[in-house]
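dumping this here before i forget
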Amino acid sequence: MRCLGCSVLSIIYEPCGMAKEYSPLACNLYIGCSHCCRYCYAPHTLQRTESNYFGIPAPRNNVLHYLEKELQKQQYSKQIMLSFIGDVYCENTDNSATTRAALELLNRYNAPVAVLSKGGRKLLRDLDIFKSFGNRIMVGCTLTFIDSVKSKTWEPGASLPEDRLETLFALHSAGIRTFASFEPVVDPAESLKLIERTIKDNSVDHYKVGKLNNYKGLDRGMDWPWFLRESLKLLRPAGKQIYIKKCLRVLAPEVELLPDEIDPERWTARA
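structure:
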């Protein structure tokens, strides 16, 4: 297994740096994305231009064949994330058929899985497979804006906020363990409104909270200690599972955190 910083991308690999805070292992089925998010790190990571990365991606060559070979070699007990490069439920050339087939393989070999997407209700096409995993799966959405105009400006190809919120509610209501990724936090006030909404809906079990990182200097003028304190004021009384990303913690060292809130593997899916 090799991380994204290496020249070869394995099918199942150990991510590096901040990505590893999301999952100990990952799998990228497609290279590219139709969401065209302004803050996306993937083109830089892959040393591609935006025009060379954003578009309608196709599945990686023989990805299902190589995925099964890796699953046959060893039993995976740590969570495998779909995906860090692109979105397995963005618009793609096979209508996410590869995503469904990969989930079927991962389930067949009893691997624990997390799915993170901005695809909204597209995820619900695979609700039957999510259910078949039992406790070995977490399904989440990246939540950035509650205002649809802001969302469309920053994430023009992704599903709108209400679509993502309704999808989380449907997943949770179906008994799927859900999570929400609050990274990037482009507008802290918007993120706090989203936290309040998901608590009210009781649609999210686990919250991953970070910040906006290195995008045109916008993060430098934000009061991150205030944002962290306000997030915790909402999440702790609601009894939610919380992970605070290191990038946010280092800018708010005065905010005391619990051991469970700084352990990146505490709330991951397990075999």
